[in-house]
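lol so apparently i was supposed to do this last week
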Amino acid sequence: MNNHYDVIVIGSGPGGEGAAMKAAKEGKHVAMTEQYPLVGGNCTHRTTIPSKTLRQNIQQMIDTGNYQDGTLPMLLESAESVIGQQSAMRRGFYERNRIDVAHGRAAFLDLHTIEVRNPDSLPRQYRADAFVIAVGARPYHPPDVDFSHPLIVDSDTVLSLQTNPRSITIYGAGVIGCEYASIFRGLRLKVNLINTRDRLLAFLDDEIIDALSYHLRENGVLIRHNEEYDKVVADAAGVTVYLKSNKTIRSDVLLWAQGRTGNTDRMGLEELGLELDSRRNIVVNECYQSAQPHIYAVGDVVGYPSLASAAYDQGRFAATHLVFGTCEDHLVKYIPTGIYTIPEISSVGLTERELTANRVPYEVGHSLFRNLARAQIAGRTTGMLKLLFHRETLEILGVHCFGSQASEIIHIGQAILAQKGEANSLMYFINTTFNYPTMAEAYRVAALNGLNRIAAFRSVGEP
Ligand SMILES: Cc1cc2nc3c(=O)[nH]c(=O)nc-3n(C[C@H](O)[C@H](O)[C@H](O)COP(=O)(O)OP(=O)(O)OC[C@H]3O[C@@H](n4cnc5c(N)ncnc54)[C@H](O)[C@@H]3O)c2cc1C
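anyway here it is w/ flavin-adenine dinucleotide bound
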């Protein structure tokens, strides 16, 4: 490897990869530094890919009723194959684009020099004109919980559980907590889901929140809202969570899923004058520049939206700005949410709560999966698509879906919602011929349902 580059990217998750590829394609001499021996980031090795593979395998097991002993370690092992394919493919991207990869932990020595430390070799120094920091985040560990105990795990270490617990307590009912509640309940464990708030995933539409709560409970997840831990005590046989409300919850394993922290420790960032927020994320401007304009930061280490999907785009935008001094592209206004609970949830745009608060005259159109031929054929009749649209202009304002394939189905609605002017209209779904039988047909059904509501109102005589 050389020692001087135009751009050095730190961290090979989707954010770092997006930045490295864009800079290389624009002719820059680029190096990637990654502290782990394989590229792909936490996304590939510890978070998105393993959790989604695990979920898919469990869904298959639920469908076939084929439960076997030793299931969790076995299912986790099968995720290794997908992780291996993803990582190998990504390594190929670096090779093809002539991006040097240095494995080791990077820290800044000065504004243009980093040192990369790797237990297998001597520290090496590299210099660059510009940097993109894409080091991601890790699970937050409160200091009074003993994460060295083998029965207390977080969303990273849960993937190396070698036992087959019969019960689990999940502390934190955000997206990760709810996804793992579905996963473990799918494995037929007793699941306690402890929520520090008064409802699940408050950013979703209320009807979807109700549906999620109903289905988690219906499947046997015990949800406790408005609870906070007082202390956590673990022994050789299990973990007890003492709640401030005087309840105690005992289970074989505790999964802590409450918050994430930027991986910015011991990187020499404060010494360079970079600003960090209370979660140790790097503060950046709209072009992803830190307080030092030649040092960019993207992905989870800059906080919201903390999604693999967005991280890749942020990386590309940062590299565009780095190369051209300007970047016209920004993340879309409405980033879709894909939540891989069982059933799956996805939404884009505004919720009924937001529209009501903003006094927007809207109407709702529903399509229940149980009435769709494709859902009946596939045996996936749990679910619903809900369209929110402007009563007068028929503009689509929000699309909310739960049920099988929700995170795929949502993109049809997203494509129309993103259109400008009259092209964003409920009428698209009514005037379009959809394949039959498909889940996409839900859009036509929901649109007609919504339009009929307006028509019924108008026939009575709109004021
Ligand atoms: C359980 C779970 C499930 C998720 N599921 C989804 C999902 O379904 N869809 C979705 O869009 N998002 C999902 N996410 C979020 C997604 O994982 C992150 O948004 C994404 O990984 C962020 O990418 P990134 O580029 O910021 O970095 P990361 O993927 O976090 O990678 C950062 C890399 O930087 C490396 N690194 C760190 N410090 C250094 C250093 N000093 N020197 C060198 N290298 C370093 C790390 O080793 C790591 O490889 C999930 C997250 C969790 C926790």
